[in-house]
Amino acid sequence: MITVIVIALALCAVVLFYTAVRSRRKQPGQDVRPIDLTAFRILMDRDDELFLKENLSRSKFSHIKRHRIRVMLRYVGRIAANASAVLRMGEAARQNSMPEVADAAAQVMALATQIRLQCLLAMMKLSLEYAVPSLQLTPGMLEPKYQSLRDSVSRLGVLTQSKAPLAIAI
Amino acid sequence: MAVKSLIDGLTLAGAVLQGALALVLLGRKAWKRYPLFTCYAIFGFAVSMMFFFLQRRPTIFFYGYWIQEAITISLGFAVVYEIFKNLFSTHEALLKLAGLIFRWTATALLCLGVAVILVQSPGTIHLGKAVLVLEEATRVVEVGLLMFLFGASAAFGLHWKQAEFGIALGLGLYVAVQLATVALRSQIGVQAWQVMNVVSILAFDSSLLVWLGYLLAPERVTSAGEVPKRAQLEQWNQAVMELISR
Predict the structure, then answer these.
(1) CB–CB of A30 and B90 under 8 A?
(2) What count of other Cβ atoms lies within 10 Å of the Cβ of residue B131?
(3) Which chain B residues have a beta carbon less than 8 Å from that of A84?
Protein backbone atom coordinates (compact mmCIF):
# COMPACT_ATOMS: atom_id res chain seq x y z
CA MET A 1 0.00 0.00 0.00
CA ILE A 2 2.72 2.48 1.02
CA THR A 3 4.61 1.67 -2.21
CA VAL A 4 1.54 2.64 -4.25
CA ILE A 5 1.29 5.94 -2.33
CA VAL A 6 5.00 6.65 -2.83
CA ILE A 7 4.83 5.91 -6.58
CA ALA A 8 1.67 8.04 -6.88
CA LEU A 9 3.57 10.88 -5.18
CA ALA A 10 6.43 10.52 -7.67
CA LEU A 11 3.98 10.57 -10.59
CA CYS A 12 2.18 13.64 -9.19
CA ALA A 13 5.55 15.37 -8.92
CA VAL A 14 6.39 14.63 -12.56
CA VAL A 15 2.97 15.94 -13.67
CA LEU A 16 3.45 19.10 -11.56
CA PHE A 17 6.90 19.73 -13.07
CA TYR A 18 5.51 19.22 -16.58
CA THR A 19 2.69 21.70 -15.85
CA ALA A 20 5.22 24.22 -14.53
CA VAL A 21 7.30 23.93 -17.71
CA ARG A 22 4.22 24.38 -19.89
CA SER A 23 2.95 27.42 -18.02
CA ARG A 24 6.44 28.97 -18.10
CA ARG A 25 6.51 28.73 -21.88
CA LYS A 26 3.57 31.16 -22.10
CA GLN A 27 4.57 34.74 -22.78
CA PRO A 28 4.39 36.70 -19.50
CA GLY A 29 2.53 39.61 -21.15
CA GLN A 30 -0.31 37.35 -22.21
CA ASP A 31 -1.52 37.25 -18.62
CA VAL A 32 -2.35 40.96 -18.51
CA ARG A 33 -6.08 41.37 -18.95
CA PRO A 34 -8.40 44.26 -18.19
CA ILE A 35 -10.71 44.19 -15.16
CA ASP A 36 -14.03 45.96 -15.07
CA LEU A 37 -14.23 46.91 -11.42
CA THR A 38 -17.77 48.32 -11.69
CA ALA A 39 -19.04 45.00 -12.99
CA PHE A 40 -17.06 43.21 -10.33
CA ARG A 41 -18.71 45.37 -7.65
CA ILE A 42 -22.16 44.55 -9.02
CA LEU A 43 -21.39 40.85 -8.94
CA MET A 44 -20.30 41.11 -5.31
CA ASP A 45 -23.39 43.04 -4.24
CA ARG A 46 -24.88 41.24 -1.24
CA ASP A 47 -28.22 43.07 -1.49
CA ASP A 48 -28.60 41.83 -5.03
CA GLU A 49 -27.97 38.30 -3.82
CA LEU A 50 -30.44 38.70 -0.97
CA PHE A 51 -33.07 39.91 -3.43
CA LEU A 52 -32.54 36.83 -5.59
CA LYS A 53 -32.70 34.57 -2.54
CA GLU A 54 -36.05 36.03 -1.44
CA ASN A 55 -37.65 35.98 -4.87
CA LEU A 56 -36.46 32.73 -6.39
CA SER A 57 -36.97 29.10 -5.56
CA ARG A 58 -34.09 27.41 -3.74
CA SER A 59 -32.97 25.39 -6.77
CA LYS A 60 -33.19 28.38 -9.13
CA PHE A 61 -31.26 30.55 -6.66
CA SER A 62 -28.53 27.90 -6.30
CA HIS A 63 -28.25 27.64 -10.07
CA ILE A 64 -27.95 31.42 -10.55
CA LYS A 65 -25.58 31.84 -7.62
CA ARG A 66 -23.26 29.14 -8.95
CA HIS A 67 -23.26 30.87 -12.32
CA ARG A 68 -22.37 34.19 -10.65
CA ILE A 69 -19.61 32.49 -8.69
CA ARG A 70 -18.09 31.03 -11.85
CA VAL A 71 -17.91 34.54 -13.33
CA MET A 72 -16.53 35.95 -10.09
CA LEU A 73 -13.88 33.26 -10.06
CA ARG A 74 -12.83 34.39 -13.53
CA TYR A 75 -12.54 37.96 -12.27
CA VAL A 76 -10.52 36.92 -9.25
CA GLY A 77 -8.32 34.78 -11.51
CA ARG A 78 -7.69 37.77 -13.75
CA ILE A 79 -6.91 40.01 -10.82
CA ALA A 80 -4.44 37.38 -9.60
CA ALA A 81 -2.85 37.11 -13.04
CA ASN A 82 -2.56 40.89 -13.33
CA ALA A 83 -0.98 41.06 -9.87
CA SER A 84 1.58 38.51 -11.12
CA ALA A 85 2.31 40.66 -14.15
CA VAL A 86 2.81 43.63 -11.83
CA LEU A 87 5.20 41.54 -9.70
CA ARG A 88 7.29 40.77 -12.79
CA MET A 89 7.24 44.42 -13.83
CA GLY A 90 8.15 45.46 -10.29
CA GLU A 91 11.17 43.11 -10.23
CA ALA A 92 12.57 44.90 -13.28
CA ALA A 93 11.77 48.36 -11.86
CA ARG A 94 13.43 47.51 -8.52
CA GLN A 95 16.78 47.39 -10.31
CA ASN A 96 16.31 51.03 -11.41
CA SER A 97 19.19 53.36 -10.47
CA MET A 98 16.77 56.06 -9.24
CA PRO A 99 15.96 55.32 -5.56
CA GLU A 100 12.43 56.76 -5.73
CA VAL A 101 11.60 54.42 -8.64
CA ALA A 102 13.06 51.44 -6.78
CA ASP A 103 11.05 52.39 -3.64
CA ALA A 104 7.84 52.79 -5.63
CA ALA A 105 8.49 49.41 -7.27
CA ALA A 106 9.01 47.79 -3.85
CA GLN A 107 5.70 49.25 -2.63
CA VAL A 108 3.90 48.04 -5.74
CA MET A 109 5.39 44.57 -5.32
CA ALA A 110 4.33 44.39 -1.66
CA LEU A 111 0.79 45.38 -2.60
CA ALA A 112 0.69 42.94 -5.51
CA THR A 113 1.85 40.19 -3.15
CA GLN A 114 -0.94 41.05 -0.72
CA ILE A 115 -3.44 40.91 -3.57
CA ARG A 116 -2.19 37.47 -4.59
CA LEU A 117 -2.81 36.27 -1.05
CA GLN A 118 -6.26 37.90 -1.00
CA CYS A 119 -7.03 36.20 -4.31
CA LEU A 120 -6.11 32.81 -2.85
CA LEU A 121 -8.41 33.47 0.08
CA ALA A 122 -11.17 34.74 -2.21
CA MET A 123 -10.92 31.64 -4.39
CA MET A 124 -11.20 29.39 -1.35
CA LYS A 125 -14.24 31.31 -0.08
CA LEU A 126 -15.92 31.32 -3.49
CA SER A 127 -15.28 27.57 -3.85
CA LEU A 128 -17.01 27.04 -0.50
CA GLU A 129 -19.94 29.19 -1.59
CA TYR A 130 -20.12 27.22 -4.83
CA ALA A 131 -20.41 23.99 -2.84
CA VAL A 132 -22.96 25.49 -0.41
CA PRO A 133 -24.82 28.33 -2.24
CA SER A 134 -26.66 29.47 0.91
CA LEU A 135 -23.33 30.60 2.40
CA GLN A 136 -22.33 34.27 2.09
CA LEU A 137 -18.57 34.64 2.26
CA THR A 138 -18.06 37.21 -0.48
CA PRO A 139 -14.57 38.68 -0.17
CA GLY A 140 -14.86 42.32 0.75
CA MET A 141 -11.20 43.41 0.91
CA LEU A 142 -10.10 42.52 -2.60
CA GLU A 143 -11.71 45.29 -4.61
CA PRO A 144 -10.35 48.28 -2.61
CA LYS A 145 -6.89 46.65 -2.53
CA TYR A 146 -6.96 46.22 -6.30
CA GLN A 147 -7.96 49.87 -6.75
CA SER A 148 -5.02 50.83 -4.54
CA LEU A 149 -2.68 48.69 -6.67
CA ARG A 150 -3.99 50.38 -9.80
CA ASP A 151 -3.16 53.82 -8.28
CA SER A 152 0.33 52.66 -7.20
CA VAL A 153 1.10 51.26 -10.65
CA SER A 154 -0.02 54.56 -12.20
CA ARG A 155 2.34 56.45 -9.85
CA LEU A 156 5.20 54.08 -10.78
CA GLY A 157 4.39 54.65 -14.45
CA VAL A 158 4.68 58.43 -13.94
CA LEU A 159 8.01 58.02 -12.09
CA THR A 160 9.52 55.75 -14.76
CA GLN A 161 7.89 57.74 -17.58
CA SER A 162 6.85 54.36 -18.94
CA LYS A 163 4.78 54.26 -22.09
CA ALA A 164 3.66 50.74 -21.25
CA PRO A 165 -0.11 50.56 -21.00
CA LEU A 166 -0.01 48.30 -17.91
CA ALA A 167 -1.50 50.89 -15.58
CA ILE A 168 -4.35 51.46 -18.04
CA ALA A 169 -4.70 47.74 -18.66
CA ILE A 170 -5.19 46.68 -15.08
CA MET B 1 25.49 -8.04 -21.31
CA ALA B 2 23.57 -5.51 -23.45
CA VAL B 3 22.13 -3.87 -20.33
CA LYS B 4 25.61 -3.72 -18.79
CA SER B 5 26.96 -1.96 -21.91
CA LEU B 6 24.02 0.45 -21.83
CA ILE B 7 24.68 1.26 -18.17
CA ASP B 8 28.39 1.82 -18.91
CA GLY B 9 27.56 4.09 -21.85
CA LEU B 10 25.02 6.12 -19.87
CA THR B 11 27.39 6.41 -16.90
CA LEU B 12 30.16 7.68 -19.18
CA ALA B 13 27.77 10.20 -20.79
CA GLY B 14 26.72 11.29 -17.30
CA ALA B 15 30.34 11.84 -16.25
CA VAL B 16 30.98 13.96 -19.37
CA LEU B 17 27.83 16.00 -18.71
CA GLN B 18 28.79 16.44 -15.05
CA GLY B 19 32.18 17.75 -16.15
CA ALA B 20 30.49 20.17 -18.55
CA LEU B 21 28.12 21.32 -15.80
CA ALA B 22 31.02 21.93 -13.41
CA LEU B 23 32.79 23.97 -16.12
CA VAL B 24 29.64 26.02 -16.84
CA LEU B 25 29.08 26.71 -13.13
CA LEU B 26 32.66 27.79 -12.60
CA GLY B 27 32.87 29.70 -15.88
CA ARG B 28 29.70 31.67 -15.10
CA LYS B 29 30.72 32.23 -11.46
CA ALA B 30 27.47 30.59 -10.40
CA TRP B 31 28.84 29.83 -6.92
CA LYS B 32 28.18 33.46 -5.99
CA ARG B 33 24.42 33.07 -6.43
CA TYR B 34 24.08 29.29 -6.05
CA PRO B 35 26.91 28.15 -3.75
CA LEU B 36 25.11 25.03 -2.54
CA PHE B 37 24.10 23.88 -6.01
CA THR B 38 27.68 24.44 -7.18
CA CYS B 39 28.88 22.23 -4.28
CA TYR B 40 26.24 19.64 -5.18
CA ALA B 41 27.31 19.53 -8.85
CA ILE B 42 31.06 19.53 -8.23
CA PHE B 43 30.77 16.91 -5.48
CA GLY B 44 28.78 14.72 -7.88
CA PHE B 45 31.43 15.07 -10.56
CA ALA B 46 34.29 14.34 -8.14
CA VAL B 47 32.49 11.25 -6.80
CA SER B 48 31.83 9.94 -10.33
CA MET B 49 35.52 10.21 -11.13
CA MET B 50 36.45 8.52 -7.86
CA PHE B 51 34.06 5.59 -8.42
CA PHE B 52 35.42 5.08 -11.91
CA PHE B 53 38.72 4.06 -10.32
CA LEU B 54 37.11 2.12 -7.44
CA GLN B 55 35.03 -0.24 -9.62
CA ARG B 56 37.35 -3.18 -9.01
CA ARG B 57 37.25 -2.85 -5.23
CA PRO B 58 33.66 -3.94 -4.42
CA THR B 59 33.77 -3.52 -0.64
CA ILE B 60 35.09 0.03 -0.77
CA PHE B 61 32.73 0.72 -3.68
CA PHE B 62 29.70 -0.53 -1.69
CA TYR B 63 30.32 1.56 1.44
CA GLY B 64 31.63 4.49 -0.59
CA TYR B 65 28.47 4.47 -2.70
CA TRP B 66 26.12 4.70 0.26
CA ILE B 67 28.23 7.35 2.00
CA GLN B 68 28.22 9.52 -1.13
CA GLU B 69 24.49 8.89 -1.50
CA ALA B 70 23.92 10.23 2.04
CA ILE B 71 26.05 13.31 1.34
CA THR B 72 24.34 13.88 -2.05
CA ILE B 73 20.87 13.68 -0.48
CA SER B 74 21.90 16.14 2.26
CA LEU B 75 23.27 18.52 -0.38
CA GLY B 76 20.03 18.02 -2.33
CA PHE B 77 18.07 19.31 0.69
CA ALA B 78 20.45 22.25 0.94
CA VAL B 79 19.84 23.04 -2.75
CA VAL B 80 16.06 22.98 -2.18
CA TYR B 81 16.49 25.45 0.68
CA GLU B 82 18.75 27.63 -1.48
CA ILE B 83 16.10 27.78 -4.23
CA PHE B 84 13.43 28.57 -1.63
CA LYS B 85 15.50 31.46 -0.26
CA ASN B 86 16.30 32.87 -3.70
CA LEU B 87 12.71 32.55 -4.88
CA PHE B 88 11.15 34.33 -1.92
CA SER B 89 13.97 36.78 -1.06
CA THR B 90 12.51 39.56 -3.25
CA HIS B 91 9.05 39.16 -1.69
CA GLU B 92 9.40 40.30 1.92
CA ALA B 93 5.65 40.26 2.41
CA LEU B 94 5.55 36.56 1.49
CA LEU B 95 8.78 35.36 3.07
CA LYS B 96 7.37 34.98 6.60
CA LEU B 97 4.22 33.17 5.50
CA ALA B 98 6.06 31.02 2.97
CA GLY B 99 8.70 30.14 5.58
CA LEU B 100 5.98 29.05 7.98
CA ILE B 101 4.26 26.90 5.34
CA PHE B 102 7.65 25.49 4.27
CA ARG B 103 8.42 24.41 7.85
CA TRP B 104 4.98 22.82 8.31
CA THR B 105 5.28 21.04 4.96
CA ALA B 106 8.74 19.76 5.93
CA THR B 107 7.36 18.49 9.27
CA ALA B 108 4.43 16.73 7.58
CA LEU B 109 6.77 15.16 5.03
CA LEU B 110 9.12 14.03 7.79
CA CYS B 111 6.17 12.26 9.43
CA LEU B 112 5.39 10.60 6.09
CA GLY B 113 9.04 9.60 5.79
CA VAL B 114 8.97 8.04 9.26
CA ALA B 115 5.75 6.22 8.30
CA VAL B 116 7.51 4.83 5.22
CA ILE B 117 10.38 3.55 7.41
CA LEU B 118 8.00 1.97 9.95
CA VAL B 119 5.80 0.29 7.33
CA GLN B 120 8.63 -0.92 5.09
CA SER B 121 10.80 -2.37 7.86
CA PRO B 122 8.52 -4.33 10.22
CA GLY B 123 11.14 -6.78 11.48
CA THR B 124 14.84 -7.42 11.28
CA ILE B 125 16.18 -6.54 7.86
CA HIS B 126 19.61 -6.63 6.30
CA LEU B 127 21.75 -3.57 5.68
CA GLY B 128 21.00 -3.24 1.95
CA LYS B 129 17.24 -3.21 2.51
CA ALA B 130 17.54 -0.79 5.44
CA VAL B 131 19.53 1.65 3.31
CA LEU B 132 16.92 1.44 0.52
CA VAL B 133 14.08 2.14 2.97
CA LEU B 134 15.98 5.09 4.41
CA GLU B 135 16.63 6.45 0.92
CA GLU B 136 12.94 6.04 0.04
CA ALA B 137 11.92 8.00 3.13
CA THR B 138 14.36 10.85 2.48
CA ARG B 139 13.39 11.02 -1.21
CA VAL B 140 9.73 11.35 -0.16
CA VAL B 141 10.64 14.45 1.86
CA GLU B 142 12.81 15.86 -0.96
CA VAL B 143 10.13 15.34 -3.64
CA GLY B 144 7.50 16.83 -1.35
CA LEU B 145 9.56 19.95 -0.70
CA LEU B 146 10.20 20.46 -4.41
CA MET B 147 6.48 20.02 -5.09
CA PHE B 148 5.84 22.64 -2.41
CA LEU B 149 8.22 25.05 -4.18
CA PHE B 150 6.49 24.64 -7.54
CA GLY B 151 3.02 24.73 -5.99
CA ALA B 152 3.73 27.80 -3.84
CA SER B 153 5.29 29.71 -6.72
CA ALA B 154 2.22 28.99 -8.85
CA ALA B 155 -0.18 29.95 -6.06
CA PHE B 156 1.64 33.19 -5.23
CA GLY B 157 2.33 33.95 -8.92
CA LEU B 158 6.09 34.23 -8.40
CA HIS B 159 8.47 34.66 -11.27
CA TRP B 160 11.30 32.11 -11.41
CA LYS B 161 14.68 33.13 -12.72
CA GLN B 162 15.82 30.94 -15.60
CA ALA B 163 18.65 29.23 -13.69
CA GLU B 164 16.61 28.69 -10.50
CA PHE B 165 13.77 27.12 -12.45
CA GLY B 166 16.23 24.84 -14.24
CA ILE B 167 17.93 23.77 -11.01
CA ALA B 168 14.60 22.98 -9.34
CA LEU B 169 13.23 21.22 -12.41
CA GLY B 170 16.33 19.08 -12.97
CA LEU B 171 16.56 18.13 -9.31
CA GLY B 172 12.83 17.43 -9.13
CA LEU B 173 12.88 15.22 -12.20
CA TYR B 174 15.80 13.15 -10.93
CA VAL B 175 14.50 12.87 -7.37
CA ALA B 176 10.98 11.87 -8.49
CA VAL B 177 12.29 9.09 -10.75
CA GLN B 178 14.76 8.01 -8.07
CA LEU B 179 11.90 7.82 -5.54
CA ALA B 180 9.85 5.63 -7.87
CA THR B 181 12.78 3.30 -8.63
CA VAL B 182 13.78 2.98 -4.97
CA ALA B 183 10.16 2.19 -4.03
CA LEU B 184 9.93 -0.43 -6.79
CA ARG B 185 13.29 -2.01 -5.92
CA SER B 186 11.92 -3.17 -2.58
CA GLN B 187 9.01 -4.89 -4.35
CA ILE B 188 10.61 -6.53 -7.38
CA GLY B 189 13.22 -9.23 -7.82
CA VAL B 190 16.94 -8.62 -8.10
CA GLN B 191 16.73 -9.50 -11.84
CA ALA B 192 14.86 -6.27 -12.56
CA TRP B 193 17.37 -4.15 -10.66
CA GLN B 194 19.45 -3.65 -13.80
CA VAL B 195 16.43 -2.08 -15.52
CA MET B 196 15.92 0.19 -12.49
CA ASN B 197 19.60 1.17 -12.73
CA VAL B 198 19.14 2.14 -16.40
CA VAL B 199 16.04 4.23 -15.57
CA SER B 200 17.83 5.89 -12.66
CA ILE B 201 20.95 6.76 -14.68
CA LEU B 202 18.79 7.99 -17.58
CA ALA B 203 16.92 10.28 -15.20
CA PHE B 204 20.18 11.65 -13.81
CA ASP B 205 21.58 12.27 -17.31
CA SER B 206 18.32 14.02 -18.28
CA SER B 207 18.59 16.23 -15.20
CA LEU B 208 22.13 17.15 -16.17
CA LEU B 209 20.87 18.17 -19.61
CA VAL B 210 18.09 20.24 -18.00
CA TRP B 211 20.59 22.00 -15.71
CA LEU B 212 22.96 22.71 -18.58
CA GLY B 213 20.15 23.89 -20.85
CA TYR B 214 18.68 26.30 -18.33
CA LEU B 215 22.05 27.60 -17.14
CA LEU B 216 23.22 28.29 -20.69
CA ALA B 217 19.93 29.75 -21.97
CA PRO B 218 19.66 33.55 -21.80
CA GLU B 219 17.46 35.05 -19.06
CA ARG B 220 14.01 36.11 -20.30
CA VAL B 221 13.60 39.83 -19.69
CA THR B 222 10.21 41.35 -18.94
CA SER B 223 9.93 44.34 -21.21
CA ALA B 224 7.26 46.89 -22.00
CA GLY B 225 6.89 45.25 -25.40
CA GLU B 226 5.38 42.19 -23.75
CA VAL B 227 2.46 44.20 -22.44
CA PRO B 228 -0.49 44.00 -24.85
CA LYS B 229 -1.64 46.99 -26.87
CA ARG B 230 -4.55 49.11 -25.68
CA ALA B 231 -6.85 48.21 -28.58
CA GLN B 232 -6.41 44.53 -27.73
CA LEU B 233 -7.16 45.26 -24.07
CA GLU B 234 -10.34 47.10 -25.06
CA GLN B 235 -11.45 44.09 -27.08
CA TRP B 236 -10.92 41.84 -24.06
CA ASN B 237 -12.78 44.31 -21.89
CA GLN B 238 -15.71 44.28 -24.31
CA ALA B 239 -15.77 40.50 -24.30
CA VAL B 240 -15.96 40.48 -20.50
CA MET B 241 -18.76 43.01 -20.58
CA GLU B 242 -20.69 40.83 -23.02
CA LEU B 243 -20.12 37.84 -20.77
CA ILE B 244 -21.51 39.72 -17.79
CA SER B 245 -24.53 41.15 -19.59
CA ARG B 246 -25.61 37.76 -20.92
Answers:
(1) no
(2) 17
(3) 157-159
- B217 near A CB under 8 A: no
The string of pLDDT tens digits covering residues A7-32 is 899 999 999 999 998 888 765 555 56
Beta carbons within 8 Å of B175's beta carbon, 6+ residues apart: A13, B76, B139, B142, B143, B146
Residues of B in contact with A110 (CB under 8 A): 92-93
Backbone angles phi, psi at B6, to 5 degrees: -60, -45
pTM: 0.74
Quote the CA–CA distance of B239 and A33 in Å, as a whole number: 11
d(C-alpha B166, C-alpha B169), whole Å: 5
pLDDT in tens, B189-243: 767 778 888 899 999 999 999 999 999 887 766 554 343 333 433 333 333 333 3
Q: Can you tell me the ipTM of this complex? A: 0.78
Rounded CA-CA distance B113/B106 in Å is 10
Distance CA B205, CA B198 (A): 10
Distance CA A87, CA A89 (A): 5
